[in-house]
Amino acid sequence: MVPARLMAKQLENSQTHVSAFNIITLLVLLVACAALLGCANVTSNTSSEISRHPFGHIPDGTGVDAFTLRNANGVEVQILNYGGIVTSFKVPDKDGKFGDIVLGYDNLEGYLQKSPYFGALVGRYGNRIAKGKFTLDGKEYTLAVNNGPNALHGGLKGFDKVIWNAKVRASPEGPGLELEYTSKDGEEGYPGNLKVTAVYTLTHDNSLKLEYTATTDKDTVVNLTQHSYFNLAGRGDVLNHVVAINTDKFLPVDETMIPTGEIKSVAGTPFDFRKPTAIGARINDDDEQLKLAKGYDHCYVFTKPIGELTKMARITEPTSGRVLEIFSTDPGLQFYTGNHLDGSTIGKGGWKYEPRNAFCMEPQHFPDSPNKPQFPSVVLKPGQVYQHTVEYKFSVGK
Q: Which of 135, 195, 232, 395 is the most buried (most CB within 10 A)?
């Protein structure tokens, strides 16, 4: 016969083991649930959320996914792992009504068939390189010519046309998405295996923050940017959008849209946006630079330390009250007014995109920098880290 005291002790030990077993079982279940959510790339908390859903397939059958980041204010951005494309950005107007303020397509097929870089992550070199050639370390490199006589936005299959490895991120700043891609040595003519990481974060103060980093195993050139086409009214033209650009210099271009090398004052020209001015106020002026570009398509120069996050521009739309501010660590800002949209592109909801239906603000290094030694260097060497931050901050004016 077992003594009562010993029986009590055995019962206590048994209960302890059962309790421990239950705790361990619960932990295992929690880990399994977390893993399941991770596989679905869905995370959420009380203030923000990230969701993932299929968005179609590229021609080789690889699936494309759309990731939707949503903050506690209801602001929502959708990003593809194909090209890092921002397909929609929904923000409120002065009456609290949400609307999509970027151009694009309703489905993947539009981006595959014909896209003027709507919402894309552009690289390995954003903007133009003259005649598709540059010399580095005494060797000449030849790129695909895809814009008149020049190379544009990384080539025939730039970073906007590849599948990126995607990983959801939760940070104190807000929901995020990390994209990673390795561009192999010789891809589109560029030297070096370039490993690129792009982190998109939708912050609690309604900013889309983009952080780019890159490393290489051979000297190369890098210039990454973001190419969303914005319309803060949601529809129509952008001629009434009021623009302020916080610099007094820009880069004139030649007839093929390559910078001449001159850094020119904006004073006395239609390019002076130091005081807030409507896009349509001077876009049709009798000005050689406007005629060459069929509107604004020029890089503004910021004389500041490269790497210093600076407010570059502020755009307001009077009817909706929406405000967009652009911050960046780069030395240049390409301002483009959708001059080559010609009505042949059918976008969201059947909208035929016409010239002046959107504007782009693309923080970047200067166009054709590999051929302009007087411009800030875009050369990345082994052991160095390319870093570039862009913030598109949305608010509502009074």
A: 232
Residues 6 or more apart whose Cβ sits within 8 Å of residue 204: 47, 48, 71, 72, 73, 173, 174
Cβ neighbours for 209, distance < 8 A, ≥ 6 positions apart: 173, 199, 200, 201, 202, 203, 389, 390, 391
Please say whether the beta carbons of 90 and 97 come within 8 A. Answer: no
Q: Are 272 and 287 in contact (CB under 8 A)?
A: no
Beta-carbon contacts of residue 359 (< 8 Å; ≥ 6 apart): 229, 230, 231, 238, 241, 243, 279, 296, 315, 335, 336, 337, 338
- In which element (H, E) is residue 29 found? helix 4-40
Radius of gyration of the chain (CA): 25
Please report where in the chains the tokens 């303020």 appear, as a residue. 101
- Cis before 124? omega within 30: yes
For position 43, what pLDDT does the model report?
45
Distance from C-alpha of 386 to C-alpha of 197, rounded to nearest angstrom? 10
Beta-carbon contacts of 288 under 8 Å, excluding residues fewer than 6 positions away, are none
What local confidence, expressed as pLDDT, does residue 154 receive? 96
The strand pair at 165-171 and 133-136 is best described as unpaired
Torsion region of 130: left, alpha or beta (phi above 0 gives left; psi -120 to 50 gives alpha): beta
Quick one: pLDDT at residue 170? 85
DSSP for 328-359, please give it.
ESSSEEEEE--TT--S-EE-GGG-EE-TTS-B
pLDDT at 306: 86
Distance CA 142, CA 126 (A): 16
Please state the separation of Cα 111 from the chain's center in Å. 15
Which H or E element spans position 97? Answer: none
Residue 34 backbone dihedrals phi, psi, to 5 degrees: -65, -40
CB of 149 closer than 8 Å to CB of 258: no
- Which positions are catalytic? 227, 362
**264-265 sheet: strands from edge to edge:** 264-265, 249-250, 297-301, 332-336, 360-364
- Predicted pLDDT of residue 47: 57
